[in-house]
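haha ok so turns out i had the wrong file open the whole time. this is the CORRECT one, sorry everyone. sequence first:
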Amino acid sequence: MNKPIKRAFLDTEDGQIHYRISGAGEPILLLHQNFRSSDEFRELIPIFAQKRLVIAMDLLGLGDSDKPPRMYSIEDYAKTVILLLDELGIKTASLLGHHTGAYVAAEVAAAYSERVKKIILCNIDNFSKEGKVAISKMCEGLNIKADGSYLMERWLARSGYINSAELKHRWLLDELKCFGYPWYAPLAVIDYCQRMEARFCLIKAPTLILSGIEDIKEIERLGFAKVDNRKFILVAVPDARIINIESGTMAMMNQIPDEISKLVIEFLDNNSVDEI
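then structure:
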């Protein structure tokens, strides 16, 4: 029987942070990608909650969290993670981040190493100069249009890797909450890429990197990064291992939760990344 998933808000000086919480035991905190929310982990939360305390937060500016009064940096987002852990009385936790959430998880591990037990970085890239320009242009084109055509445009945008109408609907609902506001998280990632390798060298926690093969193909098609760019993490992070997931897309948290959870649980339960 699945454990109940409760919702709550944390008050901060920059607005309320919405989060979901379920289960009991060793804590794991889940951090979502751009234009999504804690809903990205709807399928994973019940699996992890069978034996763990699971928290999934909406980053400020995304989901049901408030829009911050200024542009946030990855370092700012990392501070909100610590605020939430403090609110819940959690001294140390493992972190799982996907795309934008992975940058935030990495920064938490770099800046607050004593608070992080293990981290799982999913589909994380070091964007090239051209990639940063491509992301900026994409964000500039995401605007509310009087004729409503942007609704169908965004519905079709993920047709290449999401076949489920229900899942497309969930993604679209999250994305539409961002329209009409600055694109906080994508711009934070672009800024962070300038210093991320130096920051990653500070990570002490055992690190598992999950890389979706279909995801990186889509990233390359969009002009954001090259296929082999994720290998830099193995050099930057002393205790890291990468696992390639053949069917892994940008929506892999929703599409293959059993495969993702199996790898994550094995990593969390073992003493070394080499034991997976």
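The mean pLDDT is 93.
again sry for the mixup
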